[in-house]
Amino acid sequence: MAHHIVFFSLVTLALCNLALAFEPSPLQDFCVADSTSSARLNGLACKNPMNVQADDFFFSGLNIMGNTSNPVGSKVTPVTVAQLPGLNTLGISIVRIDYAPWGINPPHTHPRATEILTVLEGSVQVGFVTSNPENRLISKVLQKGDVFVFPVGLVHFQRNVGYGNAVAIAALSSQNPGVITIANAVFGSNPPIAADLLAKAFQVKTSVVDQLQSTF
Ligand SMILES: *[C@@H]1O[C@H](CO)[C@@H](O)[C@H](O)[C@H]1NC(C)=O
């Protein structure tokens, strides 16, 4: 009997930990974000459901190509809870990614979401790196219609390896996945991280860090 209680306690504990690793389940049909509320909570306050309209669950524009005229040659057009208030509490969002020829979506991580991506046009090299100590690179070239998944939290990237434009659509398992772009976070923080600290971390001369910090 005592064994059973211990076993069920462990199972319950394991299930609770599993649930806590993802966004909480909704406790009602929907909770459309109320942008006028000043309430501070995990997520956003709900609009009165009586005032909810179809447009609260709607976004238009993912047919429009993003402007890739920038140093990395890619553009992410997000549709998260910030653009689509009906996503509040639902644990899901979508983005369009445009790539100029040889454009990259630089190494970055989403602290709150797994990402599943499909290529609509072009050839896209994708990759992610496993955590310490292996830091194994898992990479593949995708063609139109191919699908790839980036597990939550892992550093990942994409690159257009074709001579035309490329387009991908990705879904993310959070209403607000967050993005940490490695280069910007490390070399472009405000205020900056001490250059001698980064020189030691990256095992380079401080002048190399100075150059990176002036770029980001
Ligand atoms: C694209 O972005 C570049 C750089 O910001 C800008 O100069 C250009 O006008 C933009 N093009 C369009 C079509 O908006």
From TrEMBL:
Oxalate binds at residues 105, 110, 115. Residues 60-210 form the Cupin type-1 domain. It comes from the Eukaryota. SUPFAM superfamilies: RmlC-like cupins (SSF51182). One of its GO terms (cellular component) is apoplast. Disulfide bonds join 31-46. Residues 1-21 form the signal peptide. It is found in: Secreted, Extracellular space, Apoplast. Mn(2+) binds at residues 108, 110, 115, 156. InterPro entries: Cupin_1 (IPR006045), Germin (IPR001929), Germin_Mn-BS (IPR019780), RmlC-like_jellyroll (IPR014710), RmlC_Cupin_sf (IPR011051). This is Germin-like protein.
